[in-house]
């Protein structure tokens, strides 16, 4: 029961009025208190308490003081006839009636008109129904009755929705859809349209354009679909993806055409996004491959020449002394032929000659191969911009499209060719040539390359956007559209003031206090040295080594003795028996026919196969009576992202609930995040080459709290922003945990990240690899003299005026992050160094510098903070190490090219590993609570205690050897 603490709330909801006191006249005094408590409880919650445990002490004491009697209610018999009579009398007094047919119809209409259109799934409508019953003074229904109403109303909602969508599909479009569902190989079929883009290549671009052209032929009801909630859209799309063409054809026309309309509507955006990704990566690849080829040729016989200044001086001196002599007589005695040859090669490898060679390679590759894609892309995609500064790029794209069928090799300046903002000044001599008449002209192919390179840069930061896209849509759509009308609500939701002066003054004061505290601590801080004459101004001593835990290994050994080689599948089963996370997996079809017990068994086997990467075929070979087709059916219709995330959240919340505070400490609000690289197949857009780790693969970004419970996971590209992943995990995790501190490594922080974390209300705490080069900003001009001990690392004041000018815009972007109107990576894509002129980016950077300064002051001053961050990140490193133990199948490689399958593998791994943490928590608590372990563990043991251990676990299954059986192989 909610704790009612505020006096105003107590007086409003728990004060007894005259009419209520009149009811006590017919009851003995021993029942006065419990009767009044039940009465006020029902008025507040719309339900009766089941027993005394549901009643908080504070309202109980508050009511007992009003009645001037003892607050003892433990003698009350809650299931007695008297108790039932009391509850009925309360219902009569409050005029609470039973649900009749009229009320039922109103409730169903309310659900179909108000609740389901908002994207609220049936599984989350239970509490909404209870609130509606309470507000309409209707007696609470049983869970079974509510379930029936939910099923009936959701079925009605789907029927009405599908009918509206189907009504907008014309006959020609219906005919095209039917032909598509025939799934014939000679035409564009359903399977082809569902497929993800292949690896980065011209062939992939042409295939995606072919899909887009086909969808453009359809006239789907865009008006109805534009207003449809994205969650509903994703649910329908997920259902379509889970079915084959044959299964979709079996649906009635009203359902079939509605499903396919939503599929084509969402697929169009995905295909456009995929095309843009391919375009960006192909343009980048042109430059990278050209550089590699040129570099390889130059390095074959490249020898660096040292002491060039000395050689130049000696050659100059000799030349002046012998002006009439030949080069051979004067220069060769000083510098040999080989040295001069090396000097020439070094010059060619670093100057304009090197850049020209690279451009030749780019031109060759583009002109002979990739140029074919440009006309098709320009005719299929519409590029736009909200900034007039980037209009030249759009004009250039229109120029290319207008001349796509022309064979001219050159443009002339008389044709009004846009140059500024497209061609870099250093590339002018490559682009601009002079003809035989001395007239300047522009090389067409070279110009096209420059246009595409400029387009790539502006697409990446969304200064140029694409019509019909999702990730690359109009950036104004990323912001909440009702911000101006609901500004007060959004500011309050973020917990920040609308008064910019108050906002700035608070940060200034915090900065001054942090700088002042660090300045005073410098003389006595033996761990920190500031070096004024060094390149690296900050020197921090390593953390002091902590005492070794003496009993942890003994405890682990005891666990292995009690539960030796426990099967990982049994651990998954035990977690489900206790928590029931498989209840989160509902069918994506309209009905469910499988027996729930049989479904639970199949779900556990399928999740184990996906989470360990062994695959469903190998799992089906076990002696459990479930074959491959049955597992595949469960995988197709029951295992999807939403269900997995819900199941993970349920397990995480169960861990928080069962933890013994005496062993694990009180609930934490700190979380650490980091990524781990997994190898993966490369015929897809997700897989990339990792610059730091090498090799092709994907990244999984984990959010793990301090006691090894992972609350969120994401599949990302190797080049994805870790800052965006960090923010998404803090905002989107499905657990009851509230994050106040977020530990990250160097790649998970930036000045923009500090700004957003402050506005979102959590503390970003990075472990900085480049701590030696960090600088501290000062709050105002003239304050540097107040911090003399910090002078080697002090820099300029913060530009508060810029923050004040862009304050509202910063809050808008922060609101869009919190409300989920756009993906964090799509928003942060605008605030990168490639878009440094954006005013909001400048303001966020200034705010981030101020917040980072406050953090750095505390980080440098306090060793305990540095240790706290280090310990938090060690937890996520431990989680990463366990991934390889669990995800052992197929060499630990994500062995699929389908994005959906990749994501399911990651989430299944997350679920299996968090179930291991849950069961280990129970095992450790059982061991530590035993008599022999009481008062054995020291403070160091508790500090090092982790539920993420697996020496007692067997992830591989059972190995059987029967010497009496042989393989059926003929021959000797």
Radius of gyration: 34 Å
Which stretches are low in confidence, meaning pLDDT under 50 for 5 or more residues running? 1-5
- Strand % is 5-15%
Q: Output mean pLDDT.
A: 88
- What class do helices, strands and sheet pairing give? alpha/beta
Number of helices: 41
Helix content: 40-55%
Number of E-type strands:
17
The span between the termini is 76 Å
Q: Give the biggest sheet.
A: 6 strands, mixed
Instruction: Sum up the overall morphology in one term.
Output: globular
Please characterize this protein's 3D structure.
The chain is an alpha/beta fold and 972 residues long. It is built from 41 helices and 17 strands. The strands form six sheets. Strands 9, 10, 11, 12, 13 and 14 form a six-stranded mixed β-sheet that branches. A three-stranded antiparallel β-sheet has the order 2-4-3. Strands 1-5 form a two-stranded antiparallel ribbon. A hairpin with a 6-residue loop joins β10 (688-689) and β11. α27 (568-579) packs across α40 (899-929) and α28 (596-611) packs across α40 (899-929). The longest helix is centred in the N-terminal third of the chain and has 47 residues, at 253-299. The protein is globular and about 130 Å long. Residues 1-5 have low confidence and may be disordered.
